[in-house]
Design a protein that fits this description.
By secondary structure, the protein is of the alpha+beta class. It has one domain (8-105). Helices cover 21% and strands 35% of the residues. It has helices at 68-80, 96-105, and strands at 8-14, 22-29, 32-39, 44-45, 55-58, 61-64, 88-91. The protein has a four-stranded mixed sheet with strand order 1-2-3-7, with no helix packed on it. It has a three-stranded antiparallel sheet with strand order 4-5-6, with no helix packed on it. Helix 1 (68-80) crosses helix 2 (96-105). It is globular, with a radius of gyration of 13 Å. The model has no long low-confidence stretch (mean pLDDT 91).
Length: 107
Amino acid sequence: MDERTAYVWSVRHRHSRTGPCQEVLSLSREGTRTRLLFQGGEGRFVPDGFLPSGCVSVGEASLNLHEPGVVRGFVDEAARRGLLDRSADLDGWELFPAVAASRTADG
């Protein structure tokens, strides 16, 4: 992926009757769609009436999935790991530490 690759992205909240809620970041380009799933639970927080829409949080680290810089961080990290070459549902929490660290480093 080069710097000119454009993605269409959206954020939504998904409820479940059998488990915790999820925040979903969808990344689409050229016929592929990658969904990063953030399921709440065990110290992982998603909007549930206390957090604002798009906020995902672990411990002291929080990211707002509505912020373009945060989305770019997830795109860059997923691309670095070779995860954007086909449509897939991925565990967004696996990318979270690297993106949170890069956002902290960026100031």
